[in-house]
Write a structure and sequence with these properties.
Elements (H helix, E strand, L loop, with lengths): L18 E5 L6 E5 L7 E2 L7 E6 L5 E6 L10 E6 L6 E2 L7 E5 L5 E5 L3 E5 L7 E2 L6 E7 L5 E8 L2 E8 L6 E2 L10 E2 L4 E5 L11 E5 L5 E3 L12 E2 L5 E2 L6
Antiparallel strand pairs: 1-2, 2-3, 4-5, 5-6, 6-7, 8-9, 9-10, 10-11, 12-13, 13-14, 14-15, 16-17, 17-18, 18-19, 20-21
Length: 246
Amino acid sequence: PSSTPEPSPTPVPPIPCNIVFESNRDGNQEIYRMNPDGSEQTNLSNNGAEDFNPVWSPDGSQVAFVSKRKTTDEGIQNIFVVNADGSNLRQLTHHFYADWPSWSNDGKRIAYTDGDILIMNADGSGEPINLTHDEVKDTRPSWSPDGTKIAWSSGDDGQWNLFVMDADGSNRKQLTDNGQVFGATWTIDGRLLTNWGWQDREEFCHNCIVTADGSEIVDGGGKGTLVNFVPFVTADGERVELAAVD
């Protein structure tokens, strides 16, 4: 008997992916977009002031960034948003020193710092909400992949620790205590990649991955040469790890 041939798999189109970055090739920091192969590099900010810290919106339609351009405000720098093609530039914050924008996973809100951690509507409507109200400096906010938590660094004068809170500012938790941590990266499964930050534990990792409640710390691998460790899980359950080494 003849066998029925297997149907050919339906081709899966590649996911469009562009890169946004900052460069001083024009004499000052500007925001650029390019294709993954480096082609079609486009200046999105086009201003004589310093523009930096660009981040994509989750749907890839907009870029938020920080700019020191002069406005009607008294501040030094503020957060702006521009469409991915460079159109429709608008100013979102009106602070003295806004920095480090971070989009929520649904694209509706942006977290940022102006000494405290604040959140605002991504369309600029309404008033920003201060989540921390700290006497020390809070910086580098970062939304968790599921949008329920925000991680940030708190401290000053070279002494920084990692904190996590719910997205409404409640349930604040300090994760590190040795003052040597400045920033962290969320993994896709909701943990945080950082460096060793605990005084009361024997050091066993240089690049450490800690759960958001601080209950479990595992070794991310490497002894300083590992620059980045951001594991993610593919649709078929395979674990992928990305690393850059010297």
